[in-house]
Amino acid sequence: MATMKYKPTTPSRRHMSVASFDEVTKFTPEKSLIETKKKHSGRNNYGKITVRHQGGGNKQKYRLIDFKRAEGNATVVGIEYDPNRTSYIALLQDEAGNKSYVIAPYGVTDGDVLSTGAEADIKPGNTLPIENIPVGTIIHNIELYPGKGGQLVRSAGAQAQLMAKENGMAQVRLPSGEVRLVRLDCKATIGQIGNIEHNTVKIGKAGKTRHMGIRPTVRGSVMNPCDHPHGGGEGKSPIGRPGPVTPWGKPALGLKTRDKKARTNKYIVKRRNGR
Asked: Residues with Cβ < 8 Å from 4, sequence gap 6 or more?
């Protein structure tokens, strides 16, 4: 996958880049595998905005992704773009004719046969229990609870590595650098996720973020004191606090929000900050 640039016909076009969609081979979604997706613009069931800066954007349909991966073999029918995630998705058709979507691994294309089960080969796109995967293998779409479906490592270009196996648990190094314990009977998919250059795409203009459903974000330092704790002062002023805060005065940028008594802390061998 590569990025594509435009001629600088306008200031916003000058630095804009888009995905070339080289990996995509199918351009219309499977009708039986899509659902309507309602916009909420960041509002909860009371109509109150609980997530700011959301609203508008292009209409989208949700693609039903099979994160559990049923046992057996299936052939890749096409690679598609999915507006709901950064990674591409692959349309599979099994021997009975049933179709399903999965996250598309890097290097997988039309006609490839993907297998799921303990006896599957160690090749990109195949899904196996972690106990059947050799140490050192690159994996993605990792389950945390057997049978629940993949929950970890699902974004474009992401990959984890199986580091060790002992006492019924596996050590997996996640893209963040965190090393975490995962049960050996959980499934994972071999290989790296496709669309690996997604992070090099430059949006280029404000209108493109509006197409994505993102509304403008105004800095607190340019507001009045009645609107934000950072506001006020003559000219360009510092925030006047030990650290930045939210509009409601709660510390932001660097404040740890994870519960120190979280039940799953015992499964973290090494945190992403190296401790």
From this structure: 17, 18, 19, 20
What fold characterizes domain 3-199? OB fold (Dihydrolipoamide Acetyltransferase, E2P) (2.40.50)
Q: Phi then psi for 34, rounded to 5 degrees?
A: -125, 150
CB within 8 Å of 189: residues ≥ 6 apart = 69, 102, 103, 105, 125, 126, 127, 139, 140, 141, 150
Q: CA–CA separation, 18 vs 102, rounded Å? A: 23
Q: Are 194 and 86 in contact (CB under 8 A)?
A: no
| Residue-by-residue pLDDT tens, the chain, 275 positions | 588 998 999 999 999 999 999 999 999 999 999 999 999 999 999 999 999 999 999 999 999 999 999 899 999 999 999 999 999 999 999 999 999 999 999 999 999 999 999 999 999 999 999 999 999 999 999 999 999 999 999 999 999 999 999 999 999 999 999 999 999 999 999 999 999 999 999 999 999 999 999 999 999 999 999 999 999 999 999 999 999 999 999 999 888 888 999 999 999 999 987 76
Which of 62, 120, 114 lies closest to 90 in space, CA to CA?
114
